[in-house]
Amino acid sequence: MDNYTLTILGCGTMGTAMLLSIMKATFQPYPAKFICCTGDKESAEALQKRFGDKIEASYGESNISAVKRADVIILGLKPYICESVLEYVKSGLNGHQVIISLLAGWSIERLSKYSSCIARVMTNTPAKFGHGMAIVSFSKEAQKYEDLVMNMIGTVGKALKLPEKHMDAATSLVGSGPAFCLLMLQAMAEGAVQMGIPYDIAKDCAAKVMEGTAKMVMETGEHPEALKAEVCTPGGTTIAGLLVMEDRGVRGGISRGVEKAAEVAALLGKK
Ligand SMILES: NC(=O)C1=CN([C@@H]2O[C@H](COP(=O)(O)OP(=O)(O)OC[C@H]3O[C@@H](n4cnc5c(N)ncnc54)[C@H](OP(=O)(O)O)[C@@H]3O)[C@@H](O)[C@H]2O)C=CC1
Ligand SMILES: O=C(O)[C@@H]1CCC=N1
């Protein structure tokens, strides 16, 4: 596919995160044109002002033509309005455009009504800064575009392929994951604030501890339990803190929370 037009249908938080990642990157084949669709005039104007002549912003009726001109469509709509928006722009769909869906809950089968070429993606907000994670599944027909999609989606940070059966779990772990990590970050910072450390310093310390720990896991490839054991001096501070956290059910609470979010993801596509 050369000289192609990429239309982002629903260019909000995640659509814009994808746009920013793609714009910062160089991969081949690179889109020749970007069209960004929103629901209302104000958000289209804000996008046009922000990205200038690098994009064409669209809203309302012109979204039908934006879809018609697209070779590749990134779907960044909320799950509950996706059906009505796709029905509205349906005359612009030719059944063969590559649809890259960022939606939680919507299966490849459900999207197949609009194109045979579907890539289902679950990514997250750190994509805005090039530190995102993405999980990607393909419909059979879309497999011929695998390189293009993986190169494009890989611009968020890191992208891996998984069978679609894991997508609800990925929605929780990857998509909701930043919120789960932020809860822990905020809780750690507040523990320090309680002992008198100013909040801004406590927050920076907690964020750097999380960043450093994540890098240590990725760079060493070691099991987190082994790395955790290295921190625990016998009779020391760490094991004392960890035992209180275990008594309060922190570990099970987080694991069950990840499981619950996946259950909700499975329901979202059915609404
Ligand atoms: N937020 C997150 O962290 C994550 C979200 N997701 C998934 O990404 C998807 C998008 O979520 P998010 O980016 O947060 O949502 P946003 O509300 O930020 O973005 C939705 C976009 O859709 C546009 N839109 C609304 N109505 C229409 C319409 N009729 N025609 C065209 N565009 C329209 C909105 O425009 P306007 O502003 O004018 O209303 C907005 O640009 C969801 O399906 C979600 O499940 C996945 C992973 C993480
Ligand atoms: O909360 C949600 O439903 C979306 C999907 C993953 C992250 N945010």
From TrEMBL:
Pathway: Amino-acid biosynthesis; L-proline biosynthesis; L-proline from L-glutamate 5-semialdehyde: step 1/1. NADP(+) binds at L9, G10, C11, G12, T13, M14, T38. It catalyses: L-proline + NADP(+) = (S)-1-pyrroline-5-carboxylate + NADPH + 2 H(+). Residues 164-265 form the Pyrroline-5-carboxylate reductase dimerisation domain. InterPro entries: 6-PGluconate_DH-like_C_sf (IPR008927), NAD(P)-bd_dom_sf (IPR036291), P5C_Rdtase_cat_N (IPR028939), P5CR-like_CS (IPR053790), P5CR_dimer (IPR029036), Pyrroline-COOH_reductase (IPR000304). GO terms for molecular function: pyrroline-5-carboxylate reductase activity. PROSITE patterns: P5CR. It comes from the Eukaryota. Gene3D superfamilies: NAD(P)-binding Rossmann-like Domain, ProC C-terminal domain-like. GO terms for biological process: L-proline biosynthetic process. Keywords: Amino-acid biosynthesis, NADP, Oxidoreductase, Proline biosynthesis. Residues 6-105 form the Pyrroline-5-carboxylate reductase catalytic N-terminal domain. NADPH binds at N63. Pfam families: F420_oxidored, P5CR_dimer. The keyword Hydrolase does not apply. Its EC number is 1.5.1.2. Belongs to the pyrroline-5-carboxylate reductase family. This is Pyrroline-5-carboxylate reductase. It comes from Dekkera bruxellensis (Brettanomyces custersii). The lineage of its organism: Eukaryota, Fungi, Dikarya, Ascomycota, Saccharomycotina.
